Amino acid sequence: MATLNSNIPAGPLGQKWQKHKFNSKLINPANKRKHKIIVVGAGLAGGSASATLAELGYQVENFVFHDSPRRAHSIAAQGGINAAKNYQNDGDSVFRLFYDTIKGGDFRAREANVHRLAEVSVNIIDQCAAQGVPFAREYGGLLDNRSFGGAQVSRTFYARGQTGQQLLLGAYSALSRQIGLGAVTSRTHSEMLDLVVVDGHAKGIIVRNLKTGEITRHVGDAVVLATGGYGNVFNLSTYARGSNVTAIWRAYKRGACFANPCYTQIHPTCIPVSGDYQSKLTLMSESLRNDGRIWVPKKPGDRRSPQDIPELERDYYLERKYPSFGNLAPRDIASRAAKQVCDEGRGVGETGLGVYLDFSDAIQRLGEDKIRERYGNLFDIYHEITNESAYRTPMRIYPAVHYTMGGLWVDYNLMSNLPGLFVLGEANFSDHGANRLGASALMQGLADGYFVLPATIGNYLATQKPDQRPKTDHAAFKDAEHSTQSMVDRMLSMNGKRTAASFHKELGKILWDYCGMARTATGLKKALELLPELREEFWSNLRTPGNASEMNQSLEQAGRVADFIELGELLCLDALTREESCGGHFREEHQEDGECKRDDERFAHAAAWEFTGVGKTPVRNVEPLVYDEIKMATRSYK
Amino acid sequence: MKVRLKVWRQKNAESPGGFETYDTPDLNSNMSFLEMLDVVNEDLAGRGQEPIAFDHDCREGICGTCSLVINGKPHGPHRKVATCQTYMRSFKDGETIVVEPFRAKPFPLIRDLVVDRKSFDRIIQSGGFISVRTGSAPDANSTPVPKIHSDLAMDAAQCIGCGACVAACKNASAMLFVSAKVSHLGLLPQGQPERDRRVMAMVTTMDEEGFGSCTVTGSCEAVCPKAISLDFIARMNRDYGVALIKGEPRRNQASEGGA
Ligand SMILES: Cc1cc2nc3c(=O)[nH]c(=O)nc-3n(C[C@H](O)[C@H](O)[C@H](O)COP(=O)(O)OP(=O)(O)OC[C@H]3O[C@@H](n4cnc5c(N)ncnc54)[C@H](O)[C@@H]3O)c2cc1C
Ligand code: SF4
Ligand code: FES
Question: How far is the CA of A43 from the centre of ligand 1 (A)?
């Protein structure tokens, strides 16, 4: 059994972080220069961490599979980033942001981490503005805010519909500065394929160069994984196509615990699937729900065009069921409600898997120009993809996989149960519980990278002597390189009949059908029969064209799909074992009036799975969640 | 619908390349151009042939990874969109479509349609930032920025770093890309202290990387998926002139020595 010590500092909630920073070990400047830190990933989390660690004087080596650090998937975030600045004087505070985030996560996140997140949120905005992030402003020159993702205060900072892009370019510019100064070595087109563990400590990684196929060993005093979320396990999602689970999955197979894999977020406002060829689903920012009204016809099977359906025959179901939050109900609730009306046969569009998001009232109230100013670029995207104008006819939307709250287990210092392995951003499990609120992932990624890790990593490094760092000819490095090489060779030599893409599609369908928005014990058991069969077929019938010593995109994809299939099994097992509903994890057996029914007696804990072998049942470790300052309540948005 | 593709295939930078012709399987006109390539690649792989290598990631026009010159135009037939936002309904049934990589000396070819755009990163590394240590920033609202300036800065900051501007230019000039970053930071009060050294350093690196000079043909603006305006080039030229007159040295970082 792994030991899970959350290392939450003692003392009152509001003072924990300050006290912890004070009690954390400092490394003297001369020694900092000797410590080498490997950072995998340059999204908001990895980019900000690499830049800040280098500013502090550490040697940093940064790896990304992309061709440039600026391409990380964070670039695609649209809506905004939360911070408890209370610039609007509308009653916001650190405590309120903390409480909203804990409640939004359905009381399944760690209290101390979330409070810290809310505390540092204010520093993030200062940092980004100083870097030149062109946040939206008011005419007086001060920063503008909007309300977002089910919040009743306006605390979201944004840069048009491209907040993630601008924040990432900020982190990328800070990182670029350090690369230019020689303080960070940047390795692009470099995919981490294994974690090297020496005497129980993470000390290095194995990397394949995607341009040349060369496999190399890299050693460091600590390894930081900031490799993003694993939502592409469902194949179709709002993620970039390249996002994958490989880095954290292979770390899991080397002993790091994987926490709460079943906490996946399905976002309510995406453009519906249109055909079998579909490669990705496009998010329509949640900010649209501030002005758009969601409805379906009252009558099942009503195929009239939306304009011909009179007001009285429409069901504005979110406004009806959740009068106080209405169209702004949290994501998990809005998604499930959409599924429900479609299951009742009231869905719209060709496939019947869609609901209307209607702007006609808002256009009447505010005028088309105002709507164009607010959402013009989103309406353009919608038009591009569907060839329909949302100014004239309601948008059609449907939920799609969007974010993963689960990830590698970390303690308060963001260190996993494997000493020396740190995990940041979407790749860890720490702050969003069972459901993430809008505009909080960007906040978490930057909090982890700019402010948390740089303060906590010293606690580990102080115990390590850089001159005693293992060499890359250590048996553990050879072994890891060998297993990477054999996996590559095996995938290329099988010469079966099916491509990796066809396996990915099949995997995605199994997960969406049995482990999607509504889950049942029967369905999950079915998936747990199908997935091992799929894994076996993958390893006997895969066909990967090309060879290993050059750019080979089929090979890259095959490796990622292999890991996704194994992850799929863990995801379903976690979902089956968690016999309650909470946040994005909805078990049909556990509901009250169609809402999530938590079981705090049995499940107020994080489940951190420990690998025991492929196809073998992993060990389920448990970290109890203790709430000192707040009471667990039933989440109600009615 | 079906189309005939003439695609540039090249194993690596050293070996010679050439066009190959492929007749696609049946397509749906609502597919994106990249989904069409996915279908062609699945078909090739199924027949034991090597799929066409091409770059892509977000598939929604924001990451700047996709490239491709389609029928002679970087990012395809439509203005203000990237290749990944191009749909098959823009082509005719039975049409022959020519697909090539972005060609420019500072973007060496890796394979088929994939080129290496690291020269862009090196330009940014030489000066495309505001030097601000984490934790040292003042309260964000202590520096008001007139809305018109921040809006204009945002127009420039939208550049996705795709390199289409370079691919479209007969001189392989990177002026639109560089001017977008110089203008974004130069328009903000936070960017003033380094304004002169930034423009000097970035323009110097741009020249060293082998990008050509600008003759104001405007083909860059026409293909830019984010409609970055030529005005930013004029703005950068002014900034560069000012920095020259002030005697700003042509190197930025070396003088700084450390983080
Ligand atoms: C369409 C969309 C819109 C969103 N909008 C918002 C929003 O408005 N507000 C909000 O708060 N959140 C939003 N999110 C969520 C948020 O964008 C992400 O959770 C967050 O950006 C993740 O950042 P990250 O740094 O953890 O990972 P990423 O940005 O995914 O970065 C991962 C990095 O790891 C590297 N990497 C991964 N695996 C390997 C490997 N094996 N080897 C080497 N390198 C590797 C990649 O190259 C990349 O650099 C949105 C998400 C999506 C999909
Ligand atoms: S200026 Fe336009 S074309 Fe050039 S890199 Fe930027 S977005 Fe691409
Ligand atoms: S794939 Fe990201 S811009 Fe085209």
Answer: 6
Share of chain A above pLDDT 70, in %: 100
Pocket of ligand 2 (CB under 6 A): B 159-165, 176-177, 180, 224-226, 228
Question: What Cα–Cα distance (Å) separates residue A169 from each residue in A42, A175, A505?
Answer: 11, 9, 33
Q: Which residues of B touch A188 (CB under 8 A)?
A: 118, 121
Rounded to whole angstroms, how far apart are CA atoms A455 and A466?
19
CB B184 within 8 A of CB B124: no
Taken in order of first residue, the domains within chain A and their CATH numbers are 267-402 (3.90.700.10), 473-624 (1.20.58.100)
Among the partner residues A176, A499, A551, nearest to B124 by beta-carbon distance: A176
Please give the Cα distance from A364 to A101 (Å, whole number).
34
Residue bearing tokens 């290329």: A492
On whether ipTM exceeds 0.85, the answer is yes
Q: Which residues of A touch B60 (CB under 8 A)?
A: 76, 280, 282, 381
In this complex, the residue of A130, A277, A501 whose CB is nearest that of residue B31 is A277
CATH superfamily of B4-111: Beta-grasp domain (3.10.20.30)
Residue A137 a catalytic site member: no
**CA-to-CA dists, residue A439 to A14, A286, A443, angstroms:** 23, 10, 7
Shortest alpha-carbon distance between residue A68 and chain B (Å): 7
Collapsed DSSP state (helix, strand, coil) of residue A624:
strand
* Residue type at position A621: N
What confidence tens digit (pLDDT) does each residue in A282-296 have? 999 888 998 999 999
CA-CA distance, B183 to B160, in Å (whole number)? 15
Three-state SS for A224?
A: strand
Rounded Cα–Cα distance for residues A61 and B16 (Å):
35
Query: B118-246: CATH homologous superfamily?
Result: Alpha-helical ferredoxin (1.10.1060.10)
Q: What angle do CA B145, B150, B153 make, to 5 degrees?
A: 135
